[in-house]
Amino acid sequence: MRYLNRYKIFALALKYGIKNYKVVNGLVNVNGNVNLMMMKKLKKLPIKFGEVTGSFRCEYNELVTLEGAPNKVGGGFHCQYNALDTLEGGPSEVGGDFNCSHNQLTTLKGCPSEIGGDFNCYKNDLAILLGGPKEVVGNFECGFNELISLEGAPRKINGSFKCDHNKITTLVGMPDRIGGDFNFSRNPVNDLEGYTSVSGDIRSWDTPIYPIIAIFITDRDDKDSLIELFNDTDIIRGDEIILDRLIWFYEEIGVVGIERINFPLIKKFYKIISD
After folding, report:
1. Is residue 19 located within the same domain as residue 128?
2. Residue 24 phi, psi (nearest 5)
3. Are residues 108 and 231 in the same domain?
4. Domain residues for 155?
5. Would you say 235 and 214 are in contact if contact means Cβ atoms under 8 Å apart?
6. pLDDT tens-digit profile of 209-226?
7. Do 198 and 179 touch, CB atoms closer than 8 A?
8. Which has the closest alpha carbon to 165: 139, 144, 189?
9. What is the mean pLDDT of the chain?
10. What is the rounded radius of gyration, in angstroms, for the C-alpha atoms of the chain?
11. First CA to last CA distance, the chain
């Protein structure tokens, strides 16, 4: 985008209600918020921004590029409900939430490495999370994509991590630490290999592993150590489950009664064998 002269910037700022701004080297720095949402099918940003101290909103348009977006945003950055297939051209620093949901993203390349609030890339076309943030202060939501793995997921999420409704087959690549809940429901995950640490609840509804783990991870503060023991016991091998080891594991951690095991549901996903 070519640098606009000051008069054109003045006219555009007036048109789009941008106040408290200064032009520095052709870039518009704004002390406050910028609201460009629902601007009559906007396909590109009308002004090249430098820094915005508040929030930057450009959602509910038809943007195909983030060219012209501020490099630094003190508050949240909202570009959801557009036609973006890349985040390149977007901010490199965001102090609040970053919402790029409901676009056509196939990559998170161009995203800031750290997010000061929540990160939401829900409902895109992502197969992997490479290029995304490495650390998220709030929640991370990447549900309803085409993810086949958790490769590229942030290493640290202080809030909750939602990767439900994807095509993920393994937990390998999950964050080193999740400070809130972990939801990997509606994925074909059939073991717990790669599990790290979750402070909140684990939700695994409608996954092959669900009927096996639901009876021992619900409302437990020692989930991490229980899952470590589960993996060390080597109960699941591919699409086979070793019944003797599963029963031993349940008895070892205090789960009473083999009748609690939902064998009909387990048999839909695994072949039950003896050691």
Report:
1. yes
2. -130, 115
3. no
4. 6-200
5. no
6. 999 999 888 878 899 999
7. no
8. 144
9. 94
10. 23
11. 66
Tokens 């009308």 identify what position? 46
Amino acid at 63: L
Going by pLDDT thresholds of 50, 70 and 90, the confidence category of residue 4 is: low
HSE of 269, CA atoms in CB hemisphere, 13 A: 21
Counted domains in the chain: 2
Alpha-carbon torsion 229, 232, 234, 237, what sign? Answer: positive
SS3 230: helix
**What CA dihedral angle connects 181, 184, 185 and 189, to 10 degrees?**
-140
Number of H helices, E strands in the chain: 5, 21
- Tell me how crowded residue 206 is: count the other CB atoms within 10 A of its CB: 11
Please write the tens of the pLDDT for every residue from 30-69. 999 999 999 878 999 999 999 999 999 999 999 999 999 9
Q: Any idea of the CA torsion for 45, 56, 24, 68, to the nearest 10 degrees?
A: -30
Using alpha carbons, select from 150, 186, 188 the residue that is nearest to residue 171: 150
CB 93 within 8 A of CB 70: no
**Same structural domain, 163 and 212:** no
